[in-house]
């Protein structure tokens, strides 16, 4: 069943109106028709509903709620990524894939060795595009939650956020002993664990950055003997965490 996201105000009593770009998608790409079922998720409450299409027009699609969809597709673990800003369109790939695997929030980080510099003027446009990619990927992977791509932050901001996590793992290519597996196995299994992961940009971290993050409570982990590209490292971490706590 296809899935769409709507705002609170598009849900009125037992009916939901779909407007905007999704209308064209439903009419001309998916070619859905009256009486076909779709799942609609409320962006604000993350509740999702099984609905039937009752009216189609170029302006809006109207659906009738048949039942609340109680089976969530969300992972039992909350994972946030702090991703060093990568080159070219790699951030887009990371957002798309991380959303499929189950990320909750995405924080782009300007580390010392980031080649890419995004000024304040360009940041708004980038964030708009990145958040659109997260929404499209959430729709495709049938998530009940659209991960949020937050404003670009710096090292200090990460250090301040560390206490809100049960654990925050720093993928560090120079860590030779402590594995991600060892750190995850130390954690007590419970629902809604909050895990943060930090991934460096193409140039890696400076020693000063690693020292500050460790001092603030991050745990350095190795992801194995091979050096992974920045766009691979976070996805490997995410997959390991989902394997350990959600499968
Ligand atoms: N410039 C670094 C070098 O030449 O050794 C490589 C940086 S790597 C391309 C980008 C980021 O991916 C790293 O900063 C780290 O966060 C993560 N990473 C890559 N391979 C890793 C590994 N084997 N263990 C832990 N983290 C890794």
Any overview of this molecule?
By secondary structure, this protein is an alpha/beta fold. The chain has 2 domains: 3-69, Ribosomal Protein L25, Chain P, CATH 2.40.240.20; 77-246, SPOUT methyltransferase, trefoil knot domain (Alpha/beta knot). Helices cover 33% and strands 26% of the residues. The strands form 2 sheets. Strands 1-4-5-6-3-2 form a 6-stranded mixed β-sheet. Strand 5 and strand 6 (61-69) form a beta hairpin. It binds S-adenosylmethionine. Residues 171-173, 199-200, 202-205, 222-224, 226-230, 233 line the site of S-adenosylmethionine (SAM).
Produce a short descriptive summary.
The protein is α/β, with parallel strands linked by helices. The chain is 33% helix and 26% strand. The chain is elongated, with a radius of gyration of 20 Å.
Describe how the helices and strands are arranged:
Layout: E1 3-6, E2 11-12, E3 15-18, H1 21-29, E4 37-42, E5 48-56, E6 61-69, E7 77-84, H2 90-101, E8 105-109, H3 120-140, E9 148-149, H4 155-161, E10 167-171, H5 180-186, E11 193-199, H6 207-216, E12 219-221, H7 230-245
Parallel strand pairs: 1-4, 7-8, 7-11, 8-9, 10-11, 10-12
Antiparallel strand pairs: 2-3, 3-6, 4-5, 5-6
């Amino acid at each position: 069943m296809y899935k769409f996201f709507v705002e609170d105000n598009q849900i009125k009593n037992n009916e939901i109106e779909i407007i905007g770009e999704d209308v064209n998608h439903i009419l001309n790409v998916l070619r859905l028709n009256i009486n076909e079922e779709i799942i609609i998720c409320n962006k604000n409450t993350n509740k999702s509903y099984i609905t039937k299409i009752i009216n189609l027009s170029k302006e809006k699609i109207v659906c009738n709620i048949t039942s609340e969809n109680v089976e969530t597709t969300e992972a039992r673990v909350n994972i946030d990524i702090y991703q060093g800003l990568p080159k070219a369109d790699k951030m887009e790939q990371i957002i798309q894939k991380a959303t499929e695997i189950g990320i909750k929030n995405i924080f782009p980080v300007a580390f010392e060795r980031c080649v890419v510099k995004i000024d304040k003027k360009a940041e708004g446009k980038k964030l708009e595009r990145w958040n659109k990619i997260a929404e499209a990927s959430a729709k495709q992977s049938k998530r009940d939650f659209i991960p949020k791509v937050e404003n670009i932050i710096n090292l200090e901001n990460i250090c301040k956020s560390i206490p809100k996590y049960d654990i925050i793992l720093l993928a560090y290519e120079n860590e030779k002993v402590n594995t991600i597996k060892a750190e995850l196995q130390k954690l007590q299994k419970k629902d809604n664990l909050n895990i943060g992961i930090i991934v460096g940009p193409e140039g890696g971290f400076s020693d000063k950055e690693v020292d500050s993050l460790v001092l603030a409570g991050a745990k350095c982990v190795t992801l194995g003997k091979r050096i992974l590209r920045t766009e691979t490292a976070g996805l490997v971490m995410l997959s390991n965490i989902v394997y350990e706590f959600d499968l």
